[in-house]
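Dear Dr. L.,

I hope this message finds you well. Following up on our conversation about the binding site, I have prepared a predicted three-dimensional model of the protein together with guanosine-5'-diphosphate. For your records, I am including the exact sequence and ligand specification that went into the calculation, followed by the C-alpha cells. Please feel free to forward this to your student if that is useful.
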Amino acid sequence: MHPDSRIYVAGHRGLVGSAIVRSLQRAGFTNIITATHKDCDLTEQQAVRDFMAERKPDYIFMAAARVGGILANASRPADFIRDNLAMQTNIIHEAWRSGVTKFLFLGSSCIYPKFAPQPMKEEHLLTGGLEPTNEWYAIAKIAGIKMCQAYRRQHGFDAISLMPTNLYGPGDNFDLESSHVVPALLRKFHEAKLDGAPSVTVWGSGSPRREFLHVDDMADASLHLMQHYTGEDIVNVGVGKDMTIRELAECIRDTVGYSGDITFDTSRPDGTPQKLLDTTRLTALGWTPTRTLRQGLAETYQWYLSTEDRRM
Ligand code: GDP
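The resulting structure of the complex is given below.
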C-alpha cells in the first residue's frame, strides 16, 4: 500500500472498523474511503456496484458485519445469517469485479467448532459442530472465508481472511444486556464505585478462561497482514495467552479504583470453559501485540468516561 492508495474501510463506525481507520491514519495513509449505511447499503448489490465504480478503492478492509451477543443472535437468527451473507457476498464479488488490488476479510474465533482443541489452530476450522447459539453468524462468516478462497483459486483475487480473538477497546458496546465481559465489568465496577456499593456481581463461576486483544492491536495486525501476507490460509490474531474471568475482574477492579468485594453469580452461564487461539502462524508472519491488558483497560475506561460526559 502506498501513502495515497485508495483504501476503503467498510464498517468504519464499528469497534474494529473505527480502529482500522485510526491505525491507517497513524501510519500516514491519506486516502481513506468510508461510507455510512445511507451512502451505501452493503446488503444491496447494485448499491455496492455503483459505490465501487464511483470510489474505485485499491484496498478494502471488510469490517462491516451484523454482530451481537448471545441474546441478539438467538432472537434474530434470520437477520444474522442474511445480512452477513448479503454484505460479504456483494462486497467480495464487486471488489473482484472492479479490480480491487487486495481484500481483507474478518472471521472470528467464535466460528471454530464448539469443542475445538485448545489453543485453537487455523486447521481446526470446519472440523466439528458449531456453538448452536451463534451458528447463524458462524455459517455466514465461514461462507465469507470460503468465498475469499474460491475467488483466489478461480480468479486469482488477492483476498485474505483473519480470525480475531475476543476484542475490547474504545468504541465498545457498554450495554449490560448485550455487551461482552470487558465493557460489562468496566461499567459495573464504575457504577459500584460511584454508588458506594459493597460488592460487584460477576456472572458465572469466574473460572472460564478467555483471551483479550485490544482492538487497536487487531487493527495494527490487519494493516501488517494486508501489507505482508498473501495466501488462502486463514490467520489467527490473538495474544496467545488467556486468563480466568476472576483474574480479569480483579484487574478491572484495580483499573476503576473500586475497593469493594467481587461475588460470583453461578446461576449465570459460564459459556465455553476456554477460548484461546494458537498464534504461531501470526508470530511467524512477523507480528506480535504491543499493548498490555492493563494499559488497554485503562484506555478503554477513559474512553467510557468520556462518552459518559457526553451523555450528561
Ligand atoms: P463469550 O466469550 O462468548 O463467552 O462472551 P462474553 O464476553 O459475554 O463472556 C465471557 C465470560 O465472562 C463468560 O464466562 C461470562 O459468564 C463471564 N462474565 C462475567 N460477568 C459478565 C458480565 O457482566 N457480562 C458478560 N457478557 N459476561 C460476563
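In brief: The mean pLDDT is 96.

With kind regards,
A. P.
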